[in-house]
Amino acid sequence: MKRALVVQNSPIETLGSNFGAVLRAAGFSFRGLGVHGDALNDSQLPFPDPSEVDLLIVLGGPASANDPYPALRAEERFLGETHGAGVPVFAVCLGAQLLSKALGGVVEATGGFQFGLRKIHVRDEGSVDPVFGNFEVPLVPTCHGDCFTVPPGGSALAEGDILLRDGGYQRIEMAYRHGNSYGFQFEPQLTPEELEVWNREMLDDYRLMGERFDAEEEADRHLREFRAYWPVYQRQTEAMLMAFLEESGIA
Question: What pTM, to 2 d.p., does this model score?
Answer without folding.
Answer: 0.96
